[in-house]
Specification:
alpha+beta, Aminopeptidase, 5-stranded mixed β-sheet, 5 strands, 22% strand, globular
Length: 159
C-alpha cells in the first residue's frame, strides 16, 4: 500500500505532542548544553507559541502519514510568514520507530512538497542537528542544501 497524508486531528496532536516535547528537550540538553528543566520549559513554550490553537492554528499543516489504516508517522509544516514570505518550514517530521527504514519520511516530504506546490510556495526549509546523520543524508538526497550553519563549543569552567 502507498503512504498518504491526512490532516491531523486534535486527539492525534495531543497524543503526539508528548513524545515531541520529550525528544526536542533531550536534543537541547545533548546539543545545546541546557539543563533538562530549562530545555523542557523552552520546548513547551516554543511549541505553544507555534501552535496556539493546536490543529486549528492558521498557516500550519499538520499531517499524519498512513499506510492503509496504519499511522506510520507525521509531519508539521508552517506556511510562509511575513518574516519568511517565500519559505515554508518543517518543524517536525517523524516516522514511528517500528516503521523506520521503509522510505516513509522521504515520501512524507515529497507529498508535503506537492501540497506546497499547489499552494504556490516556492521553498521549503528545516533545521537538523549536525549529529543526525541519517536525516542529513535523507535531506541531501531530496535536494536540500545547507543555507546556514551554527557551531558551538563547550567551555570548561574556570579554576
Amino acid at each position: 500500500m502507498e503512504l498518504t497524508l491526512t490532516p491531523m486531528t486534535a486527539p492525534e496532536l495531543a497524543r503526539l505532542l508528548g513524545a515531541l516535547e520529550q525528544g526536542y528537550a533531550e536534543d537541547l540538553v545533548a546539543h545545546r548544553g541546557m539543563t533538562p528543566e530549562a530545555a523542557r520549559e523552552r520546548t513547551v513554550a516554543q511549541i505553544g507559541e507555534s501552535l496556539p490553537v493546536g490543529v486549528d492554528t492558521e498557516g500550519v499543516l499538520l499531517r499524519v502519514g498512513r499506510v492503509g489504516d496504519t499511522e506510520v508517522g507525521w509531519i508539521w509544516v508552517t506556511l510562509p510568514t511575513a518574516a519568511a514570505p517565500n519559505q515554508a518550514w518543517i518543524h517536525n517530521i517523524e516516522v514511528h520507530e517500528e516503521h523506520r527504514g521503509r522510505g516513509y519520511a522521504r515520501r512524507m516530504i515529497q507529498l508535503i512538497e506537492a501540497e506546497l506546490a499547489q499552494l504556490g510556495v516556492p521553498e521549503l526549509g528545516l533545521n537538523v542537528f549536525g549529529t543526525n546523520t541519517v536525516a542529513l543524508g535523507l535531506y541531501r538526497s531530496l535536494g536540500f542544501e545547507v543555507t546556514s550553519q551554527q557551531m558551538a563549543k563547550r567551555v570548561a569552567p574556570a579554576g
